[in-house]
Write a structure and sequence with these properties.
By secondary structure, the chain is α/β, with parallel strands linked by helices. It has helices at about 15-30, 45-55, 65-70, 70-85, 120-125, 155-165, 195-205, 215-220, 275-285, 315-325, 355-365, 390-400, and strands at about 5-10, 35-40, 90-95, 100-105, 110-115, 130-135, 135-140, 145, 170-175, 195, 225-230, 240, 255-260, 260-270, 295, 305-310, 330-335, 340-345, 370-375, 380-385. It has an 8-stranded mixed β-sheet, with helices on both faces. Strand 4 (about 100-105) and strand 5 (about 110-115) form a beta hairpin. Helix 1 crosses helix 4, helix 6 packs parallel to helix 8 and helix 11 packs across helix 12 (about 390-400). The structure holds adenosine-5'-diphosphate (ADP), aspartic acid and magnesium ion. Magnesium ion (MG) binds near residues 9, 151, 154 and 209.
Length: about 400
Amino acid sequence: MVKKVLKFGGTSVGTIERIQHVANIIKKEHQSGNKLIVVVSAMAGKTNELIKLANDISEEFDSRELDVLLTSGEQVTCALLSGALIKLNVKAKSWLNWQIPILTDGDHTNSRIINMHVETINKYLDEKGIAIIPGFQGISKNGDVTSIGRGGSDATAVATAKLFSADFCEIYTDVDGVFSTDPNKIPVAKKIEKISYDEMLELSSLGAKVMQPSAVQTAMMYDIPLEVRSTFTDRKGTKIFSQENIDYSKSVTGVAYSRDDSKITIIGVADKPGIAANIFEPLSKAQINVDMVIQNISSDHKTTDITFTVKRDDVSKTKQILKTNSKINYKQIVQNEKVAKVSIVGAGMVSTPGVTYKMFRALSDELINILAISTSEIKLSVLIDEENTLKAVKKLHTIFDLD
Ligand code: ADP
Ligand code: ASP
Ligand code: MG
């Protein structure tokens, strides 16, 4: 007998038929004698729908009330799934954030789970019951309802696996596992059998939304092995675990992309020590994350241009801070939102020379201009015009032997 956390994403519980199908998967697992805690997302599209309702009232909808609203989606699926299991004569019960409780710390809409009370649910599992709990939600020390960020049910699943000392954590979703790139966009993408935490963390941070980055980070920190698999097929999924036992014969494991960055160029800033620090210090104090940075070589040794990227959501705040910054002088600020970041990720890159050159050559063969670059030991990202995104992903997927 093992203890498992099973997490079902939005598409997996998107309709009543699908919830009934999920109930059958759970029933089978239970019949093999396993103790089960099931984490559910809201029905697909529900959270977006709720955000839209809030925006219809105000673009600055109160964040405490937003959390009360958004977490309602998971309440619905918890009850429906428990009801479906009970209908199948299986002992099951739902708990909400405040009933468990799932304690969180941090700001509304962006909290993180710090603890869960385990005794009551453990006792229920000992009595052969199945616990159904909501992803994405928690409760603060003050007793306010909180949410933990978009895609946060993955993080709830991993935190549950850790706090309940589960033997396995399985993430059920609408694709067969983690692929070399998004299989819904690039059909020649291949399923990856095993992947290290580090590579998965890079891939998900760079846009592969199949796993939420903070969930991968927690799994890596506490060495919780994960499996991503499909709700709709019986095929083996992808195992995510620590680095040993993985074959790195390929330099690149996957290609990811995201369209949530924006490029900002400050034209005509003084070319002297301290200017970059003066530009970026107030941004960092405002919690704005600057990703790629390029400083042009000054042609007159007096002024230069500095280009950097921030998340699109942070653009207006960034421009506001730059405009009110008395420590810098410049001619103009230019902004481009129609950009995409395309990245190759692979632990094998460390030991393979020439990966950078190969990536740049491939993009130039497709006449794709590189606007900015950033690297780490196991990833290489380039910023390009948004319209070239899929062309670039396809090309890189092919030349790094991933098709
Ligand atoms: P869930 O609702 O189950 O949490 P998500 O929509 O959050 O599912 O994540 C699954 C989706 O992630 C897939 O449908 C797929 O389009 C997308 N995706 C992006 N990159 C990848 C990748 N490298 N491998 C697998 N899926 C990916
Ligand atoms: N329902 C939440 C969202 O859409 C959490 C999740 O699905 O993981 O972001
Ligand atoms: Mg998800």
